[in-house]
Amino acid sequence: MVEVRRENIMGLTVDILEFNHGVETVESASRESGEPATKIVKTLLLKVDDEYLVAIVRGDKAINFDKLSMLLGKHAAMAKAREVRQVLGVDVGAVTPLSNKVLSLRVIMNPSVLENEYVLCGGGSRNTLIKINTRDLVDLLKPEFIDAFE
Q1: Residue ranges per domain, the chain?
Q2: What is the CATH number of domain 2-145?
Q3: pTM here?
Q4: Run means of pLDDT, 10 residues per run, the chain, 150 residues
Q5: What does the DSSP assignment read for 60-79?
């Protein structure tokens, strides 16, 4: 069961999808929404040396950390769960890219995200997704496109 409502968040018109079950993984988001993993994006907090950055990654892709570290010229790794809570103010599985905390950080994006007219991203809780026009997401986040994903 899903409840859908249209809202304006950060100046963008989006659909909020609220589910009875958790949608904190790509697999569960795909199953509950009926959308393929290619239309779901993960918002991941990375630690790059002693800074944080956010990676927007298509659901069927993974970060190649060796390649990313080489491209950035710094060691990149996933942030720990406590760091996600500290930096972004939410638990792992509830991260949304539509957040001032995300906007305050450097954002990188997997170029294959652009293959979709719209994507589903985290909605700020473990049972919420946001359906957003991909171009609107890119215009909001102003990400650097880095191809370090496989």
Answers
A1: 2-145
A2: 3.90.960.10
A3: 0.95
A4: 92 96 95 97 96 97 97 97 96 94 97 97 95 98 95
A5: T--B-HHHHHHHHTS-EEEP
